[in-house]
Amino acid sequence: xxxxxxxxxxxxxLLAKLDKTDDIAEKNQIFRQLTxxxxxxxxxxxxxxxxxxxxxxxxxx
Length: 61
What we know:
Layout: H1 3-20, H2 24-48
């Protein structure tokens, strides 16, 4: 499993944990971890881009 896949798996686990907890302090900590993992996922996508490809990443809301 490469770095992107590992980060995505961790992201999904933390997202599930965020949904289950009621403690605000824990939610804050999980949110910070999710934010860091999103940065790692974005870097993973940029690293997987084809050489010479100047296409910007698209974000879906």
